[in-house]
Amino acid sequence: MRNSVVAILLAALLLLPGCGGGGGAGTPTADTVSGVAAAGLVITGNVYLKDSAATPRELVKATADGAFSFDVTGLTKPFMLKVVGSANGTAYTLYSVATDKGSANINPMSNLVVATAAAGADLSGIYAAPAQSGLPGIASALGQSLLDVQATLKPMLQKYGVTTVDPIGGSYKADGTGLDHMLDLVSIEVSPSGSVTITDSGSAPITKDLATGFATHSVSGTVTLDGVPFAGVTVTVAQESVVYGSAVSGADGSYLVDNVAQGSYTVTPVKSGYSFDRASSTAVVATADCQIPVFISSRPFTISGTVSSSNGRGVAGVTVSAQREGTATVVQGITDGSGRYVIAGLPNGNYTVTPSRTDVANSSQVVFDAAAKGATIGDAGNWAKLDFAADLATFTLSGNVLTLSGGSAMPGVLVTLYTKTNSGVLLTTSDATFNTSTDASGNYSFSGIPSGYYALKLTRSGYGFALQEAYATHGVTDDNFSIDGASLTLGFTGRPVSDANGGITLP
Questions:
Q1: What is the pLDDT of residue 383?
Q2: Is-contact 200 193, C-beta < 8 A?
Q3: Please, are residues 282 and 267 in contact by the beta-carbon 8 Å criterion?
Q4: Which residue of 6, 103, 164, 461 has the lowest C-beta tally within 10 Å?
Q5: What are phi and psi of 148, to 5 degrees?
Q6: Which pLDDT does position 309 carry in this prediction?
Q7: What are phi and psi of 501, to 5 degrees?
Q8: 77-110: b or e for each residue (b if 16 or more CB lie within 10 Å)?
Q9: Which domains, ranges and CATH numbers included, belong to the chain?
Q10: Distance from the Cα of residue 91 to its chain's centroid
């Protein structure tokens, strides 16, 4: 039979009852360490166990059917195991490690994982003096070594359907299925010089350095939507049909796929109902973690973008219209305080996109860098991003709202900003009206506001509001003020409506 290497489970599986769990080196343990010694067929011969005491104790048992069990009561964990024997006429000396009592099979895979954890050191020398040769450190490195070997050999493990098999702590049956089937067809030979040669039946041998050939790294990056972090995107790292891992972007838009073996991979973002600028990227994992450029997502069948002012801020209240070629239908979006707009729900087709806004301060239309721009929405690209620049400057209106009595912050107050014409007419359309609410500190802010005449309305159930005295004494009222050439701050006070009625709330 040919010996081999097989898939590995997560590091934590080595710490569960299947192959040990709890306690560190130097802690006495009880009960047994048991398992099966095999290399495709069971190995007939002697199985040995040594503990990690300064003067190690060694136990030995003969096995004709590959099975073994040692009473390790009073011995010091972790334990190193060795089988010396033969299977189908081939001689084997293979090793394994048990971090505690429980299962610890011995096979070509366990031999490779232990050799990788030992960074290619000669396993016979480690067995000769486990404590002095660093067995406790090797035992603590087994988990990551399992992950590294699993990632590096994943295409082969997937071929045999054993990507989730734990060769040390899992169940082993010499019945020609699963791991046993793979060990019939794949050989693994660990050299005392620090290398391993793996041969899959019918394929050319692969030789790797045990100290560096199985090292893994991470692939990471960020996903944004309309320039802000986008959570809930599944990012997959794959090589042809083999998926090496995936992760979901968090609240900050970042993702990280760990334990990726050396090689070239395709990184693909997916979220239902969204498309991405760069449907995929190539990540080359060599000797360090790999970061790839930001994925930019968009809602499907949308046109979005930003309208910027001459002083670098966004422009609020710009109406952006999209008209599909060959139809009279026009769909619109309004820029927010950051100058961003989104026109969603568009069918396939060619579109003419036009921005418009009246500069109330001058009773004229705002001039943009382009009167209109074209966009195509289709199966090949179901979203478009079009930015515009305006010839007017924008400013910020901000302030706070405090209680009249005590001057404490008033959160949750609805603040509505209305645009007015030069003649004082109040405009209530969606592109001339803006809403925000005060935060926990009573603060509010509107950005992207052009020069012009405005009015403010504050609303909170049961309260009335007025300008703070510091602002009222400068000839500014909440229903008549202008923003002209600079940002403006307006503060307000609020008091219960019942205060003006002797404590009685009027209907």
A1: 84
A2: no
A3: yes
A4: 461
A5: -65, -45
A6: 93
A7: -125, 35
A8: bbbbbbbebebeeeebebbbbbbbbbbbbbbbbb
A9: 11-200 (2.60.40.1120), 217-297 (2.60.40.10), 302-389 (2.60.40.10), 395-500 (2.60.40.10)
A10: 47
Report whether 410 contacts 437 (CB < 8 A): no
Tokens 């486990």 — which residue? 130
> Quick check: 241 and 211 in contact, CB under 8 A?
no
pTM confidence score:
0.59
Over 90: is that where the pLDDT of 235 sits? yes
pLDDT in tens, 145-168: 999 999 999 999 999 998 878 889
Q: Cα dist. 469→170, 416, 475, 478, 492 in Å?
A: 77, 20, 10, 12, 9
Q: In sequence order, what are the beta bridge partners of 285?
A: 263
Cis preceding-peptide flag for 28 (omega within 30 of 0): no
Q: How far apart are CA 276 and CA 293, in angstroms?
A: 12
Tell me the pLDDT tens digit for each residue of 250-267: 999 999 999 999 999 999
pLDDT at 13 > cutoff 70: no
* Residue 197 one-letter amino acid: T
Q: Which two tokens stand for residue 500?
A: 């003006």
Of 280, 320, 284, the closest CA to residue 302 belongs to 320
E strands present in 172-315: 186-190, 195-200, 206-209, 216-225, 228-229, 234-239, 242-248, 254-261, 263-270, 275-277, 281-285, 290-291, 295-298, 302-308
Q: What integer pLDDT is reported at residue 378 of this predicted model?
A: 77
**Rounded Cα distance, 263 and 283, in Å:** 8
pLDDT of 81-106, one tens digit each? Answer: 999 999 989 999 999 999 999 999 99
Decide: helix, strand or coil at residue 244.
strand
Neighbouring residues of 52: CB distance < 8 A, sequence distance ≥ 6 = 25, 26, 76, 77, 78, 79, 130, 131, 135, 136
